[in-house]
């Protein structure tokens, strides 16, 4: 069972302990340091849960917010390359929890949130061409590559493939 809850400063230690180079490369292009992560989490905790930017912690277990942090993700209704009716979908899994199907479970839970949001008609996923696990998750959700490449949102020198998942289909 995956329990999504808003990402908060209390999740910081688990992120610092569980990050690796692969996660760092995919999320922000480098490893989080404590001051940078703390500043980010402080900003995130002030975001509205129904706002245009949403970041979630994915916990395993009970469904009561008491489980272990295994990953997370987000929905962004604003940002470069995102048009009205679209949202960027992101998902990530801490190193110790990869290979167990958690990526799909996290992404599927985020997809449920997106489907419940009337402002979202299409999800945009940006996936590194070499990240086959993320591509498999996207395909399992029903997303398809658009054939377009674009700069990574946080590491502009890197190129990612743009994927699309239309929600009203």
UniProtKB/TrEMBL annotation:
Which GO molecular-function terms appear in the entry? protein N-terminal-serine acetyltransferase activity; protein-N-terminal-alanine acetyltransferase activity
Name this protein carries in UniProt: GNAT family N-acetyltransferase
Q: Name one GO cellular component term.
A: cytoplasm
Which Gene3D superfamilies does the protein's record reference? Answer: 3.40.630.30
N-acetyltransferase domain ranges (all copies): 2-169
Lineage, opening ranks: Bacteria, Bacillati, Actinomycetota, Actinomycetes, Micrococcales
Q: Domain of life, per the record? A: Bacteria
């Amino acid at each position: 069972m995956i329990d999504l809850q808003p990402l908060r400063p209390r999740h910081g230690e688990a992120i610092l302990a569980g990050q690796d180079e692969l996660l760092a490369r995919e999320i922000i292009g480098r490893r989080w340091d404590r001051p940078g992560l703390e500043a980010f989490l402080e900003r995130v905790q002030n975001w509205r849960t129904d706002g245009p930017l949403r970041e979630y912690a994915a916990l395993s277990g009970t469904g009561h917010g008491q489980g272990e942090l295994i990953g997370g993700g987000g929905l962004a209704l604003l940002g470069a390359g995102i048009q009205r009716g679209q949202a960027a979908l992101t998902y990530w899994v801490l190193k110790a929890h990869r290979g167990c199907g958690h990526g799909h479970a996290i992404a599927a839970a985020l997809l449920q949130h997106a489907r419940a949001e009337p402002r979202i008609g299409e999800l945009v996923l940006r996936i590194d061409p070499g990240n086959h696990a993320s591509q498999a998750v996207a395909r399992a959700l029903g997303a398809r590559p658009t054939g377009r490449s674009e700069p990574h949102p946080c590491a502009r020198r890197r190129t990612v493939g743009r994927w699309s998942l239309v929600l009203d289909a």
